[in-house]
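If it is no trouble, might I ask you for a protein's amino acid sequence along with its backbone structure tokens?
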Amino acid sequence: MSHYLTRRRLLGSLGLAGVAAVAGCLDRVPGRGAVPVGTDGASGPPSRDGTLYQPWPHDRLREATVSGGPDKDGIPSVDDPSFAPAGEVPLADDEVVFGYAGEADVKAYTQRVLVWHEITNDTLDGTPVAVTYCPLTGTAMGFERGDTTLGVSGKLVNSNLVMYDRATDSRWPQVLATAVDGPREGDQLREVGLTWTTWGRWREAHPDTEVLTEDTGYAKRYGSDPYGNYNPTSGYYGGGRTLFSPLDEGWAATLDEPKRVVIGARTADRAVAFDKPTLREKRVLETDGGGANGDGGSDTGGADGGDGDAGADADALLAVYDPGLDTGWVYRSGGESVEPDDDREGLFVVDGETHRAGDLPLERMYALDAMWHAWGGFYPETAYVA
């Protein structure tokens, strides 16, 4: 008998059992470009140009895929989202939002809405996208979706939302951004950067932002969260075990705190997790270079805490803390030394010049907040930097 709680038990403990609608949530590239008989013209969302590290065989991922409770589209995506100016939507400053700041569009997607839908199909700066959120893994990610839309399959793998595209019905685990079943198997989605922060922080940084409203076309209990609360953190988000068996449990040997938040980044051949609470304290964390996966995993010795030995390896990744948004930005160091400004939070010195955390003159990596169990389960050989 598994020791993991069931989602039904969790919802039952919250008095919501039976309310199915509230629940839910590459470089193997077999099949890339292949279109089976009967799917001609159903191209699905656009694929990325490069490839992401993806350590699991697809048949293993399919075997590990389980029902999350609701059926396909039982958790309905928002396909006609509505937005309002910041001053017209009453939100508490500590409400969690997922922000996008582009050339023309600046938008905040509220966790209070997405916890009931998990996917919003929208357009950002003229590009059709899907903004997605999985409450069980604490991950918010944006993807280009082409001329199709993404929906909630009702399945989970490693506790993570499995999306499907309505053009081909291929299945895409959110964190992997990779189709693991269906006509698009092996293809990988192009990601769109989102910032996990709070409404007060986002509004202060972007006073011209628009915000997703509760005018979704569905009657939901927006403002209540069947999994708990983020501010203060409680319920499922606050700790304890996962609801579903992870793909791999090796992460517990490094850090047995399944819900601890890390900032994850992947390249073509490795994955790195920066410990977010530690980043808040040290302001800079850095890997020790290209051996992050090759040396067998945990890389806690790679953090320099801003003491001055950054830049030792051009292949190293580093994270810097942005106190304004309470987020971390991840870069390739390129051999450069990055030092926190001693007098001003959120500023860093690179090659004698001072820059904001989000604007360092280095190659910025796509990165996302994630619960440790999710990141470690998907990427068993991830470096963990703290």
The helical segments are 7-13, 58-63, 111-114, 199-205, 251-254, 276-282, 372-378. The CA atoms of residues 174 and 360 lie 28 Å apart. Confidence is low (pLDDT under 50) at residues 1-5, 11-40, 291-312. The radius of gyration is 20 Å.
